[in-house]
Fold this sequence. Notes:
Blueprint lengths: L1 E8 L9 H16 L2 E7 L11 H11 L9 E2 L4 H13 L3 E4 L3 H10 L30 E4 L10 E6 L3 E6 H4 L3 E4 L7 H12 L3 E5 L6 H11 L5 E5 L24 H11 L9 H11 L6
Parallel strand pairs: 1-2, 2-3, 9-10
Antiparallel strand pairs: 4-5, 5-8, 6-7
Amino acid sequence: MSVSYVGRFAPSPTGPLHAGSLVAALASWLDARAHGGQWRVRIEDVDTPRCVPGADALILDQLARCGLHPDGDVMWQSRRGAAYEAALNRLVDAGLAYGCACTRTDIARANAALGRLKPRHGELTYPGTCRPEQGGLQGRPARAWRLRVPDADDPHGHIAWTDRRLGAQHQVLHDAVGDFVIRRADGLWAYQLAVVVDDAEQGITHVVRGEDLADNTPRQIWLQRCLGAPTPAYLHTPLVCGDNGEKLSKQNGAQALDLRDPVAAVQQAAAVLGVNASGATLGELLAGAVAAWPWRRT
Length: 298
């Protein structure tokens, strides 16, 4: 296998895999195998209140029953606190991160004063209230830690990248999200920091994941640059949607995978990805799917 390609699947153990998460797992596995690369599995259990005991073992069993076996040891984010702490300290020491005392209400009021309204399907941008040059915490305790993004007129904050499926992408971080949280007010590590630190630790060169995560990419690229970490190639795949047109997810009642017939389950997932493959056994089906994988270019 090639060390020039290292991909990963990183499920959250909030319940068993469903049809949508199998599509994501299969896409990342197929891309790795089509490029002769390695495929890692990472359990993203950093958001501990949402995790279901035993779900991590169940997910690994479901993957194995679908013929998707990771290369190397599985990584658990819940065991990685020291690495995230070290990354935060580096960012603070470099003047790139700062403590924030703002509540959601504070942020809403600050935006209202600026004439900004919350987008219907989005979040308010952080206006920089606790930035040191704007007065800092002013005696209040830090609730969270934020990563500073460049001002709107600074080209460093204009993040451009090319998604292997979606094409050219661009986002101005200041306008889209503002300074974003890397350690939460409840003391838990934010997804953005954990995923960037772990991708660097595992040597991930290619990220293949669902299209709903595409808008996280510019924040992660900026954080990679701040930490001196390499930026992987990105491929965001089609989503599986329910009857209501919304993404199939555990939050909206997606049912656990029916693996009484693993070949049928994998074949259905492949079809969502536009891969026409068949086989009497999992091995035959997966080999055919690798051969038919449409996104071979890096």
